[in-house]
Amino acid sequence: MKLPRIDIAGLIAAMTLREKIGQLTMVTGEWAVTGPKTMPVSMDAIRAGDAGSILNLWSPQALREVQAAALESRLRIPLFAGYDVVHGHRTIFPIPLGEAASFDCDLWRRTAAAAADEAAEDGISLTFAPMLDVARDLRWGRILEGAGEDPFVASEVGRAKTVGYQGERLDDPRHVAACAKHIGAYGAVLAGRDYATADVSPRELEEVHLPAFEAAVAAGVAAVMPSFNDIAGIPSHANRQLLDGYLRRRFGFDGVVISDYNGIAELVVHGAAADLAEAAALALRAGVDIDMMGGAYRDGLEEALRRGLISEAEIDTAVRRVLTLKERLGLFANPLRGLIGDKPAPVRHRALSREAARKSVVLLKNAQAVLPLAGQGGPIAVIGPLADSGSDMLGAWAGAGRGEECVTFVTGLRAAFPSRAVAQARGCEILSGSADDQALALTAARQAEVVVLCLGEERGMSGEASCRAEPDLPEVQIGLARAVLALGKPVVLVISSGRPIILPKDIVEGVSAILATWFLGSEAGNALGDILSGSAAPGGRLPVSWPYSAGQAPIYYARRRSGRPADTNQHYTSKYLDVPVEPLYPFGHGLSYTTFRIENLRLSASEMTASDGVDVAVDVVNTGGRAGDTTVFMFIQDPVASVTRPVLAAKGFAKVSLAAGERRALRFRLTGADLRFPGIDMQPRIENGRIDVLAGERAVESELLRASLTVTGGVSSMQT
Ligand code: GLC
Q1: Pairwise CA distance, residues 451 & 429, whole Å
Q2: What is the pTM of this model?
Q3: For a surface tag, which of 27, 124, 292, 373 has the fewest beta carbons within 10 Å of its beta carbon?
Q4: Average pLDDT over residues 625-641
Q5: 260 is catalytic
């Protein structure tokens, strides 16, 4: 149905300055508190047209009330409601770092669409997602929220999530606008501390932190949010080169830039602005259209105009973008948009949540094939502070999810093993414990044939402003694990966390199996039961390197070689005295219940021009006795270039399900664009010479198949 076009120019011409600034102001409904101060929703302000959008408010009743107030304003401009629907709305899916482990682009799209469906029903028109910050430092609490360490993977997530949330048309009432966040380099904050400076080079910014935003823009993302941090002293909310130069001019973004929470007013705290008027002027000129919860535009823009720091035409440009978004959302024609009924959206997508959770679990270790557990046998003891927790399964950014609606691990295991006794004891709390608690757990363990030990973080130990300098397994849990291991029973360690966490060597070696389950959402227990019982095989792969020590951070596979690469046999090389330089588990690591062989890597040509490309194929064989999934990565390596290149760079991945003995050819396309990089002068270039193409299941160079080709038609690496 084609909606009548609104005469936006005519509407702007009719607006007073106050009404224009109102459209650029977002207030909070306070149903969730996601920032340092609240400018509570005032119905009078909304009736006066002083707020054009609202965040952190949902449900049919609340949205009907606030939209009715907006339509009482002089020009009857509807507001839009935004919310952090990051990994589900009422049905909660695995945290994004966990879902990234599925390497299943279609799944990423489907869960976003399902989340949009429930959110739209609750009156949400825009989600502050996907979060596309590349993160390589496990100390940073928000590593949970993105797709891990690799810009190519983050780009694929950005594309899939944008399409999933937004659907074909923004006025589709079962979909919502997406807001890619947080541009830029937020994942590179100093020492993993949230909001700290990110002193990255222009090259790292372009090659690592911006590609996912370019991909989301190419997929039509409707909004983008700047990051809290500064990039080498320029706060993103005032960074015109970032928001106008890269985002709008180079990437072609024509949507709305929504500040992060109070991000404009905080330009004063950064020391980039003397007062709110200067902060408002810097942000508007940089290209920030909406001031989320800062009051900077409300209290500073008129003064900035009076001082001549900005023009009313610049204000009109921002207003035009906001009104255009509202029209694209269909809000003028249908202010209640996706709202249906008068009750909050129920949990509607459990089956999908269970599928996503299963695919997100990464089997890190499975000694003597202790997993899957037999359907018949002696008691199973489910021990640990996360064994019976529903709320922790929500993870951070839990939307409208409710802990009591999450299937706990012990509930799921009891359902998966109906013929086995399943005992449960916490043994300790997340950070504290008592001898009595531990004694009870040990009694259960003594009587069991196998122990499923559920340890890790509580949901509040990762997320925004939740960074950990020592991201270890808490001491009390280490004590519990050692006491259980001393009993000599097979132990399956199930880790719930918002990040890779540091595991003591004796525990890694002592347990029989280790599963990284992140925070799996509404169907956590059923998904774990599917995996441990073998009714589903684990297929997750690490989207982020899992270190031995936090001292290794930032750690990632796509590092530059250096002139003295680590060599434990050579003193003068880039290594530590006390810890390996490699991670405990590398990017791409993950086991299944079967085995695979990757072979026969072949290229369609041994030469390619900069404007052309080659086809890459590789065979995968399931060499084990049962069906399983694996993910194969295509990397490139550029051995000589004018700017030294990462030792490996992912340029493709494919997930494949194979029956026992089945062989499948996987096909990729490598193009000149995949080889392009910013030269010494920061101008994009493709260089002639050898390029190696590598394929395999993990970012471990020695394990990968390799084929070489020669690039011609580019520039010489010596031509700089
Ligand atoms: C928070 C987060 C951002 C979120 C916003 C609204 O501070 O940084 O990701 O979308 O505020 O909740």
Answers
A1: 17
A2: 0.97
A3: 373
A4: 97
A5: yes
